[in-house]
Amino acid sequence: MTNTTYDLDNPTITTLLNRRSIRAFADETIPADVVDVLETVAQHAASSQYLNDWSAIRVTDPAVKAKLAEIGHQPYIAQAPLLYVFVLDEHRNAEIAAAKGVDVDSEAFTLNGSYRYSQAQNDAVLALHAMETAAYSLGLGCVILGSLLNDVQGLIDLLKLPKYTYPVLGLAIGRPAQDPALKPRLPKSVQIFENAYPADSGTLLNDIADFDAAVHQYYDLRNTDRPVDAFSDQIAKNAVAPMGSKTVEPIAKAQGFRLDR
């Protein structure tokens, strides 16, 4: 049997291991050919059952960018040279199905069910990650914008998202104008398991104390005068944080999805 030799220090691995969120960008326009490649790479991401049930909105209007920055409470969103909002999208497929004679208002229509909703969301994330990785490989920097979900209904209204769509994440891209440190990652012992999820909490918690210490030594460039809270403290805080407008079901229902089936 021939043993294959793997180059574990190749550019792709290096790019992924050095991934950092970039929140300050140089005032440089991204060339059109680069934009085209990034968008094409996103289209080549895996898609559940080849439904291609995601879309991305490239935001270029300064007024819309400013509103997105307001929704996200992050001024740098408006300054991003390249800005996208990725959307799970069954609207296009519903239109295609209707053109083929399918009654999309009947109980037989299933593209609006919970399974399709979750799979379309997965597809949107996979496409975004492909674009993000490609951007990093070109020397660009990115930040994923979950903050745009602070006001989902406002985002839907702003981007004129139709029935059977729902915003997933934003992505800001540009030439980095900062050099943040790599953020610590969880020990593999508490995140990567073999064959089954561990039954005892000890396995999950044994190595958290050291990780807490490592995280507490990390300084985020957004607040350089103090270390980041320990990971456990961040989890405890978020465990009781109010969700408010981030609650999915009511707005998803208004967008035509049936998450109860």
UniProtKB/TrEMBL annotation:
InterPro entries: Flavin_OxRdtase_Frp, Nitroreductase, Nitroreductase-like. The keyword NADP applies. It holds the Pfam family Nitroreductase. Residues 17-175 form the Nitroreductase domain. The keyword 4Fe-4S does not apply. Keywords: Flavoprotein, FMN, NADP, Oxidoreductase. It comes from the Bacteria. Belongs to the flavin oxidoreductase frp family. This is NADPH-dependent oxidoreductase.
